[in-house]
Amino acid sequence: MLQPVVPYGFLSLPRELRDQIYEYVLSSNAEVMEPYDLEEGLVPAIIRTCKQVESEGCAVLYTKYTYLFNIPPWDLEWLTTIGKANVMRLKTIRIVVAPTYWKSLWYRLLHSLARDAKGLRHVYIFWDCDDFDGIGKDVRFVRELGAIQHPESTTVDGYYGLHWPGYLTDKMNARFEKKTASKSTGRV
Fold it and tell me: Residue 67 and residue 73: Cα distance in Å, rounded?
């Protein structure tokens, strides 16, 4: 009589144990990941072993970290590279906007995040300033940002127009936290 085949190997482990292994293998000392960090070696070969491991591992990888968006050309390329399924898994993002650089690419990046990153829960944005003439007063930029739906928390910091907190609170259905006030300009 034939003996029943007993599965063995990584996929025979319970899912909870595999998730712990993914957390260990995909760990990084960085609290905030820059997308190009992943291209420089964080994603180990385990993600490339089979479709099931890729799906399970990416679920851990893209939900665990805060991802920094600060260079729109690279960030847009990274979103395309990881695909819509993984963009939907992103939970926490940090957006740091340098003064007046790449305006049209920032619009595209925010539009892509609003369209595809449906799992976002935490959004932090910092508007840098250049003699109080940065992108923080750009109406289209704020409208694109406001299109990101239903994060649990939105933190805005830096230099931006005084009416943006109310607008972003209404549009994003999120708690708004004022973090930085400027000196005598009347801008927050």
Answer: 15
Instruction: In whole angstroms, give the CA distance from residue 157 to residue 128.
Output: 9
DSSP 9: S
Residue from 172, 188, 178 nearest 134 by CA? 188
Task: Kindly list the distances between the CA atom of residue 32 and the CA atoms of 41, 71, 95, in Å, as whole numbers in the listed order.
Answer: 15, 15, 11
Tokens matching residue 98: 């340098």
Contact between residue 126 and residue 95 where contact means Cβ atoms under 8 Å apart:
yes
pLDDT above 80 (res 79): yes
The Cα angle at residue 29 between residues 75 and 27, in degrees rounded to 5: 80
Q: Place 185 in a pLDDT band, splitting at 50, 70 and 90.
A: very low
In angstroms, the CA 179 to CA 181 distance is 7
Q: What is the pLDDT of residues 21-71, one digit of tens each?
A: 988 888 777 778 877 665 555 566 788 889 999 999 999 888 888 999 999
